[in-house]
Amino acid sequence: MSDIDVLHLSINTKTDLVVFNGSNAKAGRKFDLDDEYTWNSFQNRILDKSKTIQASSERVCIRDGIAE
After folding, report:
1. Residue 1: strand, helix, or coil
2. What's the pLDDT tens digit per position in 10-31?
3. Is residue 23 within 8 Å of 38, Cβ to Cβ?
């Protein structure tokens, strides 16, 4: 979570507006969205309307528990 994530969630909750947050599209070598993970995530979420977010690396549990 980052500050912008909290801001976007708040805007969405209070206004029902759709908000988008993701990698900077100009971060690539040629100012394109050329990172394979970023492109695949963009395509899955926006173009394919998938609700699943793929992990960019293996996730490790630091402390077991339940979150709300």
Report:
1. coil
2. 998 999 888 877 666 555 555 5
3. yes
The rounded distance, in Å, linking the Cα atoms of 45 and 40 is: 9
Which residue type occupies 16?
A: D
Give the number of residues written for the chain.
68
| The pLDDT value given to residue 33 | 52
- What's the pLDDT score for residue 1? 58
| String of DSSP letters for 8-64 | HHHHHHHH---------GGGSTTSS---HHHHHHHIIIIIS-------SS----SS-
Calculate ∠ Cα 48-49-51, nearest 5°: 120
pTM, full prediction: 0.39
> How far apart are alpha carbons 53 and 41 in whole angstroms?
7
